Amino acid sequence: MKRGRSTLLLLTLAAALGAYIWFVEMKREPAGDEPKSEKVFTSLEADTIEALTLTASNGDVTTLQKQGVGWKIEKPVQVAADASEVSGVTSNLATLDLTRVIDEKPRSLDAFGLDSPRLKLTFTAAGKPRTLLLGAKTATGGDTYAKLDDAARVFTVPSWLEQSLDKTTFQLRNKAIVGVDREAVDHLAIIGAPGTIELKKDGSEWRLVQPLQGRADGGEVGSLLTRLSSGQMQAIVAEQPATLDAYGLHPPRTTVTATGSGKTLAQVFVGSASGDAAVHMRDASRSMVFTVEKALADDLQRPAAAYRAKDVFSFRMFNLSRLVVMRGDTSRTFEKKKSGTGANATDTWTQTAPADSSVKAATIDDLASRLSTMRAESWADAPTASTPVISVVATFDGDKQERVSIVQAAGEMYALRDGEPGAARLTAPAVTDVIGLLEPAKPASAPPPATAPGKTP
Asked: In this predicted structure, what is the pLDDT of residue 346?
């Protein structure tokens, strides 16, 4: 009896194994063959999409319309759209893979979360509207149940793509704080927390006009313009604020105005803090109040010293032609002279006054290099009593000249530029390295006399 039961059990297992092989293994793709991927929207090209309506998981419904090469949000507000965000949506719709067909004709959509879909995307391409519905994730979380509104079939799509399609109205809008071309700006005014700062472009160079007149650091001004032109809103606090007082914007903490060719190109008002990491801000061309990261607000409110040119000298090695260095009662002139002819001609440094051929060109080149890289560590008032160290007159870029005096006061080294207020505090090594190159070369020591063999010197 036991043997009969065992035989029956074995037959049952064999039948089950056979069924598995027939229904699973026989239908499996042959090894080595890549599974064929099916697109949800066949023949769809991203650039043919001309209209979009997205219903996000948070309930936001955003309608967008293509305008030329850009996009505009039509509802719930009329504003420019974020081109990169919209491009991400259209590109992923065009390349969306169907990973698996779940049911061609499901009796109910409840089990797939498609009776009340979390996401809904309707787009129009070539005049034809299509709608994609996204529901719950599969048990493994790797896929999401989906369907088209004009078909019964339920299928899955990769879950990782969901993030690129689930966009709120704020995410889809252009979040730039201002729309300004930094290259068109030739004047900046910053009034408020850092005092009054005015910067003006003179040709290709920037200069400080207020609170002092002098050279500006082009890199720092460029950084400010980049931050202003590329700054992004973090959140919109109020589209139509009833009052600005609550946001520290009446009056604002700081006003930044960018002008080009006499026309105001952008103006922003910096307000009070919003928590620890954000600050309220308003753009003069719009009524809304929004927040930006605190670091951006801080960058717009730096003191005037942040924009002063840190390089003590304006010349560069490639455009420097002459140096006159005065130390005490001694004056030395170094000039670049052409040596060689034709294509082989090169610029070579020489000491021309007083003429001294023993001074090596490499030494003068090193001197010029150290002067060109001398930088202010900080700024101070010009000392009332000081000891002169050296004075330098540099001729560069044709006939441009600049004069700098380096002095010592109270144990500190300072650089004083003609025509500019204050003093640049220098490091002692930066000055001593220059002084060392001006010292006369020490004659080589004579070798000791040779000692005769067998004799002690």
From this structure: 86
